[in-house]
Amino acid sequence: MIANIAWSHEAEQRQLSAAPRTKEGFLGAPLRELIAYWLDLRCDPARCTKVVCMPMRLLAAKRGGQLRLDAVLARLRCGQCGEPPVHAVITDSPIDVAPNDIMDGAKWRVALVS
Ligand SMILES: [Zn+2]
């Protein structure tokens, strides 16, 4: 199994440098170790149009920096439809929330849920 599968072809093309951790490494890390990064969260587009780019710093402040990312992800629900995200990607730079549009600043993206 390949750990760093980007969720779209465009994202794969923008994997400009190695991510600092594997998917499993991110999921097992406490939020306080991830505050420099961003979460790109998307609902099933057939059901809900919500796209959120959440700073990990904010998530750590809200949920507690000691919590592991996998535990926090399992509890995340969309504010619009109430469902968990079908895509969750951690990245080094915030995305533009327009569908499939990724800002040029991102050097890596690691899919956590896809
Ligand atoms: Zn939703």
Structure in words:
This protein has 114 residues and is α+β, with helices and mostly antiparallel strands. The chain has one domain (9-113). 22% of the residues lie in helices and 18% in strands. It has helices spanning 9-13, 23-27, 56-63, 69-75; strands spanning 38-42, 51-55, 87-91, 109-113. It has a 4-stranded antiparallel beta sheet with strand order 2-1-3-4. The longest helix has 8 residues, at 56-63. The radius of gyration is 13 Å and the shape is globular. Mean pLDDT is 83; it is low at 1-7.
How much of the sequence lies in strands comes to 15-25%
| Total DSSP E strands | 4
Spans of at least 5 consecutive residues whose pLDDT stays below 50 are 1-7
Order of helices and strands: HHEEHHEE
- What is the approximate shape? globular
Roughly what is the average pLDDT, rounded to an integer? 83
- Measured as a percent range, the helix fraction is 10-25%
What characterizes the major β-sheet?
4 strands, antiparallel
Q: Tell me the number of structural domains.
A: 1
Reading side by side through the largest sheet, how are the strands ordered? 2-1-3-4
Report the total helices.
4
Distinct small molecules bound, one entry per kind: zinc ion
Terminus-to-terminus distance: 14 Å
Question: Structural class given helices, strands, pairing?
Answer: alpha+beta
Give the radius of gyration: 13 Å
Q: What does this entry show, briefly?
A:
By secondary structure, the chain is α+β, with helices and mostly antiparallel strands. It has four helices and four strands.
